[in-house]
Amino acid sequence: MTGYGKAEAMYEEKKITVELRSVNSRQLDIIIKAPPLYRELEQEFRRRLTPLQRGKVEMFISVESSGVSPAASINVEVFKSHYACLKALMIEIGETISADAILRLPDVVGSSGAELSESEAACALACIDVAVEQLTLFREQEGAAIAADILQRVALIGDLLAQVETFEGARIESVKTRLRQALDEAVGAGAVDANRFEQELIYYLEKLDVTEEKTRLRGHCAYFVQTAKEPGAGRKLGFIAQEMGREINTLGSKANDGDMQRIVINMKDELEKVKEQLLNVL
To answer: What is the pLDDT of residues 44-63, one digit of tens each?
Structure first.
Protein backbone atom coordinates (compact mmCIF):
# COMPACT_ATOMS: atom_id res chain seq x y z
CA MET A 1 0.00 0.00 0.00
CA THR A 2 1.07 3.55 -0.52
CA GLY A 3 1.93 5.57 2.53
CA TYR A 4 4.20 8.18 4.05
CA GLY A 5 5.60 8.65 7.52
CA LYS A 6 8.09 11.09 8.97
CA ALA A 7 9.64 11.57 12.41
CA GLU A 8 12.35 13.80 13.86
CA ALA A 9 14.37 13.62 17.08
CA MET A 10 17.21 15.55 18.68
CA TYR A 11 20.25 13.78 20.06
CA GLU A 12 22.67 16.20 21.71
CA GLU A 13 23.55 18.60 18.87
CA LYS A 14 22.27 16.32 16.11
CA LYS A 15 18.87 16.37 14.40
CA ILE A 16 17.86 12.89 13.23
CA THR A 17 15.17 12.76 10.54
CA VAL A 18 13.50 9.55 9.32
CA GLU A 19 11.25 9.47 6.25
CA LEU A 20 9.32 6.40 5.12
CA ARG A 21 7.64 6.05 1.73
CA SER A 22 5.83 2.98 0.46
CA VAL A 23 4.20 2.00 -2.81
CA ASN A 24 2.33 -1.14 -3.86
CA SER A 25 4.16 -4.46 -3.98
CA ARG A 26 3.10 -8.06 -3.33
CA GLN A 27 6.03 -8.58 -0.96
CA LEU A 28 7.87 -6.41 1.54
CA ASP A 29 10.79 -4.84 -0.32
CA ILE A 30 12.91 -2.56 1.88
CA ILE A 31 15.41 0.01 0.62
CA ILE A 32 17.46 1.86 3.24
CA LYS A 33 19.47 5.01 2.71
CA ALA A 34 21.30 6.03 5.86
CA PRO A 35 24.58 7.71 6.88
CA PRO A 36 27.63 5.41 6.96
CA LEU A 37 27.72 5.71 10.74
CA TYR A 38 24.38 3.89 10.94
CA ARG A 39 25.27 0.94 8.69
CA GLU A 40 25.78 -1.40 11.61
CA LEU A 41 22.10 -0.91 12.49
CA GLU A 42 20.73 -2.00 9.11
CA GLN A 43 19.49 -5.39 10.29
CA GLU A 44 17.71 -3.77 13.21
CA PHE A 45 16.23 -1.16 10.84
CA ARG A 46 14.78 -3.94 8.71
CA ARG A 47 13.37 -5.70 11.76
CA ARG A 48 11.58 -2.50 12.78
CA LEU A 49 10.00 -2.25 9.31
CA THR A 50 8.74 -5.86 9.05
CA PRO A 51 5.34 -5.03 10.68
CA LEU A 52 4.51 -3.14 7.46
CA GLN A 53 4.04 -6.61 5.84
CA ARG A 54 3.88 -5.53 2.18
CA GLY A 55 4.97 -2.78 -0.16
CA LYS A 56 8.15 -1.33 -1.58
CA VAL A 57 9.32 0.69 1.40
CA GLU A 58 12.06 3.30 1.17
CA MET A 59 13.59 4.63 4.36
CA PHE A 60 15.72 7.78 4.35
CA ILE A 61 17.68 8.72 7.44
CA SER A 62 19.49 12.05 7.58
CA VAL A 63 21.53 13.58 10.40
CA GLU A 64 22.17 17.30 10.71
CA SER A 65 24.67 18.55 13.24
CA SER A 66 24.42 22.03 14.74
CA GLY A 67 27.68 21.67 16.67
CA VAL A 68 31.31 21.37 15.64
CA SER A 69 31.86 18.45 13.29
CA PRO A 70 34.63 15.99 14.13
CA ALA A 71 37.79 16.33 12.13
CA ALA A 72 37.64 14.67 8.74
CA SER A 73 40.14 11.99 7.74
CA ILE A 74 41.02 10.53 4.36
CA ASN A 75 41.10 6.80 3.90
CA VAL A 76 44.29 6.62 1.88
CA GLU A 77 43.87 3.02 0.75
CA VAL A 78 40.35 3.66 -0.55
CA PHE A 79 41.54 6.85 -2.27
CA LYS A 80 44.35 4.96 -4.03
CA SER A 81 41.98 2.17 -5.06
CA HIS A 82 39.53 4.63 -6.67
CA TYR A 83 42.40 6.45 -8.38
CA ALA A 84 43.81 3.21 -9.86
CA CYS A 85 40.40 2.20 -11.20
CA LEU A 86 39.72 5.58 -12.79
CA LYS A 87 43.19 6.34 -14.16
CA ALA A 88 43.10 4.02 -17.18
CA LEU A 89 39.53 5.08 -18.02
CA MET A 90 40.42 8.78 -17.87
CA ILE A 91 43.40 8.28 -20.18
CA GLU A 92 41.23 6.38 -22.66
CA ILE A 93 38.60 9.12 -22.90
CA GLY A 94 41.12 11.96 -22.71
CA GLU A 95 40.01 13.40 -19.40
CA THR A 96 41.90 14.17 -16.22
CA ILE A 97 41.21 12.87 -12.75
CA SER A 98 40.19 15.43 -10.15
CA ALA A 99 41.20 14.76 -6.57
CA ASP A 100 38.05 16.60 -5.49
CA ALA A 101 35.95 14.16 -7.50
CA ILE A 102 37.64 11.17 -5.84
CA LEU A 103 37.13 12.69 -2.39
CA ARG A 104 33.37 12.70 -3.05
CA LEU A 105 33.29 8.94 -3.73
CA PRO A 106 31.94 6.61 -1.01
CA ASP A 107 34.12 5.84 2.02
CA VAL A 108 37.02 8.07 0.95
CA VAL A 109 36.42 10.71 3.59
CA GLY A 110 35.28 9.86 7.10
CA SER A 111 35.21 11.39 10.51
CA SER A 112 38.13 10.44 12.66
CA GLY A 113 37.10 8.66 15.80
CA ALA A 114 33.40 8.72 14.84
CA GLU A 115 31.54 5.90 16.58
CA LEU A 116 27.87 5.28 17.07
CA SER A 117 26.94 5.39 20.72
CA GLU A 118 24.23 3.18 22.16
CA SER A 119 22.16 6.19 23.17
CA GLU A 120 22.28 7.69 19.66
CA ALA A 121 21.36 4.31 18.17
CA ALA A 122 18.40 4.07 20.57
CA CYS A 123 17.30 7.58 19.58
CA ALA A 124 17.43 6.70 15.86
CA LEU A 125 15.48 3.47 16.40
CA ALA A 126 12.81 5.26 18.41
CA CYS A 127 12.53 7.78 15.59
CA ILE A 128 11.99 4.93 13.12
CA ASP A 129 9.22 3.48 15.31
CA VAL A 130 7.39 6.80 15.24
CA ALA A 131 7.74 7.03 11.44
CA VAL A 132 6.35 3.49 11.11
CA GLU A 133 3.34 4.51 13.22
CA GLN A 134 2.77 7.53 10.99
CA LEU A 135 2.99 5.44 7.82
CA THR A 136 0.64 2.84 9.29
CA LEU A 137 -1.90 5.55 10.16
CA PHE A 138 -1.63 6.89 6.61
CA ARG A 139 -2.30 3.40 5.25
CA GLU A 140 -5.30 2.91 7.53
CA GLN A 141 -6.88 6.14 6.33
CA GLU A 142 -6.26 5.21 2.71
CA GLY A 143 -7.55 1.70 3.39
CA ALA A 144 -10.86 3.02 4.71
CA ALA A 145 -11.43 4.93 1.48
CA ILE A 146 -10.43 1.92 -0.62
CA ALA A 147 -12.73 -0.38 1.36
CA ALA A 148 -15.70 1.92 0.78
CA ASP A 149 -14.99 2.00 -2.96
CA ILE A 150 -14.56 -1.79 -3.22
CA LEU A 151 -17.75 -2.59 -1.27
CA GLN A 152 -19.68 -0.12 -3.38
CA ARG A 153 -18.57 -1.90 -6.54
CA VAL A 154 -19.41 -5.34 -5.12
CA ALA A 155 -22.88 -4.02 -4.28
CA LEU A 156 -23.19 -2.74 -7.84
CA ILE A 157 -22.35 -6.21 -9.17
CA GLY A 158 -25.24 -7.51 -7.05
CA ASP A 159 -27.55 -4.87 -8.51
CA LEU A 160 -26.48 -5.80 -12.05
CA LEU A 161 -27.13 -9.46 -11.27
CA ALA A 162 -30.69 -8.57 -10.29
CA GLN A 163 -31.11 -6.87 -13.68
CA VAL A 164 -30.13 -10.10 -15.43
CA GLU A 165 -33.27 -11.78 -14.10
CA THR A 166 -35.53 -9.24 -15.81
CA PHE A 167 -34.37 -10.48 -19.23
CA GLU A 168 -34.43 -14.23 -18.58
CA GLY A 169 -38.08 -14.82 -19.43
CA ALA A 170 -37.92 -12.90 -22.68
CA ARG A 171 -34.65 -14.66 -23.54
CA ILE A 172 -36.26 -18.11 -23.27
CA GLU A 173 -39.15 -17.12 -25.52
CA SER A 174 -36.70 -15.59 -27.99
CA VAL A 175 -34.69 -18.81 -28.12
CA LYS A 176 -37.83 -20.88 -28.69
CA THR A 177 -38.94 -18.60 -31.50
CA ARG A 178 -35.56 -18.65 -33.24
CA LEU A 179 -35.31 -22.44 -33.06
CA ARG A 180 -38.86 -22.91 -34.33
CA GLN A 181 -38.24 -20.56 -37.26
CA ALA A 182 -34.97 -22.27 -38.12
CA LEU A 183 -36.62 -25.70 -38.15
CA ASP A 184 -39.58 -24.50 -40.22
CA GLU A 185 -37.22 -23.02 -42.79
CA ALA A 186 -35.14 -26.18 -42.87
CA VAL A 187 -37.79 -28.90 -43.09
CA GLY A 188 -41.00 -27.00 -43.70
CA ALA A 189 -43.74 -25.75 -41.40
CA GLY A 190 -45.57 -28.48 -39.50
CA ALA A 191 -43.07 -31.19 -40.48
CA VAL A 192 -41.51 -31.39 -37.01
CA ASP A 193 -42.91 -33.59 -34.22
CA ALA A 194 -44.08 -31.10 -31.58
CA ASN A 195 -43.44 -33.41 -28.61
CA ARG A 196 -39.93 -34.25 -29.77
CA PHE A 197 -39.25 -30.59 -30.39
CA GLU A 198 -40.32 -29.71 -26.85
CA GLN A 199 -38.08 -32.44 -25.40
CA GLU A 200 -35.05 -31.24 -27.33
CA LEU A 201 -35.89 -27.66 -26.48
CA ILE A 202 -36.00 -28.41 -22.76
CA TYR A 203 -32.59 -30.12 -22.99
CA TYR A 204 -31.16 -27.16 -24.88
CA LEU A 205 -32.60 -24.58 -22.48
CA GLU A 206 -31.12 -26.46 -19.52
CA LYS A 207 -27.72 -25.77 -21.04
CA LEU A 208 -28.56 -22.06 -21.04
CA ASP A 209 -29.94 -22.01 -17.50
CA VAL A 210 -27.95 -19.64 -15.26
CA THR A 211 -29.68 -20.30 -11.95
CA GLU A 212 -26.63 -21.98 -10.38
CA GLU A 213 -24.30 -19.23 -11.56
CA LYS A 214 -26.55 -16.54 -10.11
CA THR A 215 -26.80 -18.36 -6.78
CA ARG A 216 -23.05 -18.86 -6.52
CA LEU A 217 -22.30 -15.28 -7.52
CA ARG A 218 -24.69 -13.95 -4.87
CA GLY A 219 -22.99 -16.18 -2.33
CA HIS A 220 -19.53 -14.98 -3.37
CA CYS A 221 -20.62 -11.33 -3.11
CA ALA A 222 -22.02 -11.89 0.40
CA TYR A 223 -18.88 -13.78 1.44
CA PHE A 224 -16.72 -10.97 0.05
CA VAL A 225 -18.51 -8.36 2.16
CA GLN A 226 -18.25 -10.57 5.24
CA THR A 227 -14.53 -11.27 4.70
CA ALA A 228 -13.77 -7.59 4.12
CA LYS A 229 -14.46 -7.02 7.81
CA GLU A 230 -11.62 -9.36 8.80
CA PRO A 231 -8.12 -7.91 9.42
CA GLY A 232 -5.42 -8.81 6.90
CA ALA A 233 -7.89 -10.32 4.42
CA GLY A 234 -6.36 -8.91 1.23
CA ARG A 235 -5.21 -12.22 -0.27
CA LYS A 236 -8.44 -13.97 0.71
CA LEU A 237 -10.49 -11.25 -0.97
CA GLY A 238 -8.40 -11.74 -4.08
CA PHE A 239 -9.34 -15.42 -4.17
CA ILE A 240 -13.03 -14.62 -3.72
CA ALA A 241 -12.83 -12.07 -6.55
CA GLN A 242 -11.40 -14.79 -8.80
CA GLU A 243 -14.38 -17.02 -8.04
CA MET A 244 -16.74 -14.14 -8.75
CA GLY A 245 -15.03 -13.70 -12.10
CA ARG A 246 -15.58 -17.37 -13.01
CA GLU A 247 -19.32 -17.12 -12.37
CA ILE A 248 -19.61 -13.86 -14.31
CA ASN A 249 -17.74 -15.38 -17.26
CA THR A 250 -20.06 -18.41 -17.25
CA LEU A 251 -23.06 -16.09 -17.16
CA GLY A 252 -21.72 -14.33 -20.23
CA SER A 253 -21.09 -17.56 -22.12
CA LYS A 254 -24.61 -18.80 -21.38
CA ALA A 255 -26.42 -15.50 -21.86
CA ASN A 256 -27.23 -15.83 -25.55
CA ASP A 257 -28.95 -12.47 -25.28
CA GLY A 258 -27.75 -8.98 -26.14
CA ASP A 259 -29.21 -7.25 -23.10
CA MET A 260 -27.80 -9.83 -20.71
CA GLN A 261 -24.40 -9.64 -22.41
CA ARG A 262 -24.26 -5.89 -21.86
CA ILE A 263 -25.03 -6.36 -18.17
CA VAL A 264 -22.33 -9.03 -17.90
CA ILE A 265 -19.81 -6.67 -19.49
CA ASN A 266 -20.63 -4.03 -16.88
CA MET A 267 -20.20 -6.64 -14.13
CA LYS A 268 -16.78 -7.58 -15.53
CA ASP A 269 -15.79 -3.93 -15.61
CA GLU A 270 -16.71 -3.42 -11.96
CA LEU A 271 -14.93 -6.62 -10.94
CA GLU A 272 -11.73 -5.53 -12.71
CA LYS A 273 -11.82 -2.29 -10.74
CA VAL A 274 -12.27 -4.30 -7.54
CA LYS A 275 -9.23 -6.44 -8.42
CA GLU A 276 -7.14 -3.33 -9.10
CA GLN A 277 -8.07 -1.88 -5.73
CA LEU A 278 -7.33 -5.17 -3.96
CA LEU A 279 -3.68 -4.73 -4.94
CA ASN A 280 -3.65 -1.90 -2.39
CA VAL A 281 -5.06 -4.03 0.41
CA LEU A 282 -2.98 -6.01 2.94
So the answer is: 999 999 998 888 999 999 98
Q: Whole-structure pTM over 0.70, yes or no?
A: no
Query: Beta strand pairing status for 14-23 and 3-11?
Result: antiparallel
Query: Does domain 142-173+207-278 match CATH 3.40.50?
Result: no
Alpha carbons 176 and 26: distance in angstroms, whole number: 50
Domain with CATH 1.20.120 in the chain: 142-173+207-278
The identity of residue 181, as a single letter, is Q
Second CATH level (architecture) for the domain 3-70+117-140: 2-Layer Sandwich (3.30)
Identify the CA nearest to 67 among candidates 114, 14, 16, 111.
14
pLDDT digits (tens, 9 = 90+) for 180-231: 666 666 666 556 666 666 666 665 666 677 888 999 999 999 999 999 988 8
